[in-house]
Specification:
The chain has 8 helices and 3 strands. By secondary structure, it is mostly helical. The chain has one domain: Winged helix-like DNA-binding domain superfamily/Winged helix DNA-binding domain (Arc Repressor Mutant, subunit A, Orthogonal Bundle).
């Protein structure tokens, strides 16, 4: 319950930002992951976004309808569906990521830089310890874990 309460407390800061762009939390996670790479197949995308495949398959058509993502069959395996951001999706992501960086900076300011970094370190350790081999760990390692994301956000905030 403590982890759920912490997540909820953090998300209270992000939800108005998401609502102002008419996005759900899951939709934003999809845009974020696709912004990090050119494209992803549905299974990898589900794992990286921590979204169940069934939920992802209901969400992608909504994003496609809004012209934020496009999907196509994989060239090497027609059974696989590959998803990518459209130009409109990348534009929205860039606009939203700047605002998100400000929210993260506010969280860091409220908590203090050292304690904020410690939260990331402890959460990375928890993930590594508790969920080995479930696919989410491997996906997180491919994108560098939370520590790299924290450094990226800090660098972005310094540049502003």
């Amino acid at each position: 319950m403590l982890l759920m309460r912490a997540r909820e407390a953090v998300m209270l800061r992000f939800r108005p930002h998401l609502r102002s762009h008419d996005l759900t939390e899951q939709q934003w996670r999809i845009l974020r992951v696709l912004a990090e790479q050119e494209s992803a197949d549905m299974n990898d995308l589900a794992a990286r976004c921590c979204i169940l495949p069934a939920s992802l398959s209901r969400t992608i058509p909504l994003l496609t309808e809004r012209k934020l993502v496009c999907r196509r069959s994989d060239d090497s395996d027609q059974r696989r569906v590959v998803v990518a951001l459209t130009a409109q999706g990348r534009t929205l992501f860039r606009a939203m990521s700047a605002e998100s960086a400000q929210i993260y900076a506010g969280l860091e300011a409220d908590l203090g830089a050292a304690q904020f970094a410690e939260v990331y370190r402890v959460l990375d350790n928890l993930i590594e310890t508790v969920r080995p081999g479930n696919g989410f760990k491997e996906a997180d390692e491919r994108r560098g874990g939370s520590t790299r994301r924290l450094r990226s956000r800090q660098k972005a905030a310094e540049m502003e």
